[in-house]
């Protein structure tokens, strides 16, 4: 994307614009597909963020349901999704990113307070590591990769944050904001993955917060902290969708009067649709797997590889065509991973939807 900016002599481009420029810079036979490829990238970004926000709603509803079940009547978790959507409505109507920053700061504080407190349950009663199955058949790895990829698929958020930074030059680089953030996320997930499985074994749930007791004050506090943190991060991830959808409107002042009203309508529809999917298929693991496989394969592998391949078409691919080989390998990995991961997740979601419809 930085190379696209350099070639077009513009300060910044979005990922859909970068894909379009790359197609225009590539072989002649792909030039005509530039606009279509850019539009498809926009659709992928929107759908990826849609799945992400749906996962957040399911996560929040499941955790608050456990607390509600302990203190009151046992309501279906779909009612909790509905309440979460209603509470999110005023927050999701915030249109300026700078007003979402304090919200996201509170979200991070709540999340890491919950992470710190949950250590008590993780390190209490650790069994002998030899009692755990340390390896599974390779056929099960694809599900793991898809779920693990979920934590690395926030490409839309990454791009929006960079676009609104006061000093975007500090975003990239070896010790830039992006690398440090991803490294921290990787280490956090490795830690919770290893310790969580060591502690709970095969009985571990899709979210480790669902494994801790329901009837203890500390465990309830942890659930409230982490679920509230995820709840407050929904508006920022939804903001990405609005930014992508209305990026073309920013370039035309003629649409300025209608844009605000249209944006509010899109926000309402987006919130309603994520809530509807969360109510229809509240399977946290399958939704997480689908979002991880879909977004990682498209936004982290296919798009960057295609952009790089076409941008290097005129400049050359280096000795022994190593850049071209690298890009082709990334494309193949992305295709295989995306098709297999999405197929497994969709089958599970269809099964859950059939159960939901059958219970009505």
What does this structure look like?
The chain is mostly helical and 360 residues long. The chain has a single domain, classed as Amino acid/polyamine transporter I, CATH 1.20.1740. It is 73% helix and 0% strand. It contains 13 helices and no strands. The longest helix has 38 residues, at 34-71. The relative contact order is 0.16.
- Which CATH first-tier class would you pick? Mainly Alpha
Q: Label the CATH architecture.
A: Up-down Bundle
Indicate the proportion of strand residues: under 5%
The major beta sheet can be summarized as:
none
What is the count of β-strands?
0
List keywords for this structure.
mainly alpha, 73% helix, globular, membrane, transmembrane, transmembrane helix, Amino acid/polyamine transporter I, AA_transpt_TM, 360 residues
State the gist of this model.
By secondary structure, the chain is mainly α.
Architecture blueprint of SSEs:
Layout: H1 2-8, H2 15-25, H3 28-31, H4 34-71, H5 77-92, H6 97-123, H7 141-149, H8 155-163, H9 177-200, H10 217-245, H11 256-280, H12 284-311, H13 322-358
Helix pairs in contact: 2-4, 2-12, 4-5, 4-10, 4-11, 4-12, 5-10, 5-11, 6-10, 7-12, 7-13, 12-13
GO molecular function, one term: L-amino acid transmembrane transporter activity
Keywords: Membrane, Transmembrane, Transmembrane helix
Subcellular location: Membrane
């Amino acid at each position: 994307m930085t190379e696209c900016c350099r070639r077009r002599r513009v300060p910044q481009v979005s990922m859909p614009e970068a894909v379009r420029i790359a197609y225009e810079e590539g072989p002649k036979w792909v030039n005509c597909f530039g606009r279509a490829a850019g539009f498809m990238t926009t659709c992928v970004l929107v759908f990826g963020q849609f799945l992400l926000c749906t996962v957040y709603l399911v996560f929040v509803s499941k955790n608050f349901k456990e607390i509600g079940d302990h203190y009151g009547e046992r309501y279906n978790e779909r009612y909790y999704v509905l309440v979460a959507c209603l509470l999110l409505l005023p927050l999701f109507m915030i249109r300026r990113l700078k007003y979402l920053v304090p919200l996201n700061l509170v979200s991070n504080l709540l999340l890491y307070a919950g992470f710190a407190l949950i250590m008590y349950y993780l390190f209490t009663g650790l069994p002998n590591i030899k009692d755990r199955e340390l390896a599974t058949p390779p056929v099960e790895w694809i599900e793991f990769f898809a779920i693990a990829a979920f934590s690395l698929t926030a490409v839309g958020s990454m791009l929006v944050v960079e676009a609104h930074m006061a000093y975007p030059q500090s975003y990239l680089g070896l010790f830039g904001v992006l690398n440090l953030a991803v490294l921290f996320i990787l280490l956090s997930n490795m830690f919770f993955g290893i310790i969580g499985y060591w502690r709970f074994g095969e009985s571990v749930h899709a979210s480790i917060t669902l494994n801790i007791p329901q009837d203890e004050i500390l465990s309830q506090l942890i659930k409230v902290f982490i679920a509230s943190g995820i709840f407050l991060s929904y508006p920022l991830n939804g903001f990405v969708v609005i930014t992508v959808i209305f990026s073309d409107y920013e370039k035309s002042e003629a649409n300025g009067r209608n844009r605000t009203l249209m944006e509010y309508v899109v926000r309402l529809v987006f919130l309603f649709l994520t809530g509807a999917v969360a109510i229809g298929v509240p399977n946290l693991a399958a939704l997480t797997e689908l979002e991880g496989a879909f977004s990682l394969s498209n936004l982290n592998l296919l798009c960057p590889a295609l952009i790089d391949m076409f941008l290097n078409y005129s400049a050359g691919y280096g000795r022994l065509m190593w850049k071209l080989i690298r890009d082709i390998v990334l494309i193949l990995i992305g295709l295989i991973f995306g098709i297999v991961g999405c197929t497994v997740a969709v089958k599970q979601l269809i099964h859950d939807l059939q159960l939901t419809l059958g219970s009505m």
